[in-house]
Specification:
Blueprint: H1 21-32, H2 36-41, H3 43-67, E1 72-73, E2 99-106, E3 115-121, E4 126-131, H4 136-148, H5 150-162, H6 189-192, E5 197-202, H7 205-208, H8 213-223, H9 225-232
Antiparallel strand pairs: 1-2, 2-3, 3-4, 4-5
Length: 246
């Protein structure tokens, strides 16, 4: 039976109406005025025009996605990532991010890796899904799983391609990792060199300013369901949280 698309699901009364233009303008202004005093005087504008719409987007999308069988949800406190940058170990001392990000994470104990991420800024906006920069033991478990059953993994690659998605090769290794040289001619070779297992989809301003962004986010999440469930099936417990620092 075909999976019902998110567009056919009932929407809540107080529905996401699109990311507001005023919120986008605030992010532009913040980029030009990356200053604590400037932000402090306008924090309420940020909360109302940037943070609240993004929180509404993900909290509205999460139950729609779960209805389609992907066990995912929002953070307990605030699904929107902090606007404050972690500058402790960075030469860049600007205190604020000039984008807004939010995530939907797996809702069982072995899903601390793997999520759907939404990123909106005046410069670049996109959706991403998968496992970004996981720890080396997780990568090792993923690679061993691919080798053990290459057909299962390549089936996921094909499923992503059917949705016009592919795994990003950003930060891919130039050579195969140690111990995998015998797979140089294998169909798995480019995937063994990956250090993240992530797909991305750019967002146009027309898309993120529209109420249809909810449905677009749901459909993107469901297209990545095989990828997310593959990673979660490794039963790996995450040790750190790089995504929350982004």
């Amino acid at each position: 039976m075909a999976v019902k698309r998110a567009t056919s699901l009932q929407q809540p009364v107080h529905a996401f109406s699109g990311f507001p233009r005023s919120g986008l303008q605030f992010l532009r202004d913040l980029k030009l005025n990356n200053d604590r005093d400037w932000f402090r005087e306008r924090k309420q504008i940020y909360q109302e025009q940037v943070e609240s719409p993004m929180a509404l987007l993900v909290t509205q999308a999460a139950p729609l996605i779960r209805k389609q069988g992907l066990a995912i949800g929002t953070k307990d406190k605030n699904p929107v990532m902090r606007v404050y940058r972690d500058i402790r170990f960075s030469p860049d001392k600007r205190p604020f991010k000039s984008h807004v990000g939010a995530s939907l994470k797996g809702s069982h104990k072995h899903s601390k890796y793997g999520e759907i991420y939404i990123h909106i800024s005046a410069d670049e906006s996109f959706l991403a899904a998968g496992f970004w920069m996981p720890e080396r033991p997780f990568l090792q478990a993923w690679r061993e799983s691919m080798i053990k059953n290459p057909t299962a993994f390549l089936r996921i690659v094909k499923s992503l391609a059917n949705s016009k998605l592919k795994l990003s090769n950003e930060n891919s290794l130039t050579r195969l990792p140690r111990g995998y040289d015998s797979f140089a001619e294998s169909e798995l070779a480019p995937f063994l060199r990956l250090t993240s297992y992530v797909t991305t989809r750019p967002l146009t301003s027309k898309e993120y300013l529209s109420p249809q962004l909810v449905n677009l986010l749901c459909d993107f999440a469901l297209a990545n369901k095989p990828l997310l469930e593959y990673g979660w099936s490794l039963n790996w417990t995450r040790q750190r949280d790089l995504l929350d620092e982004r």
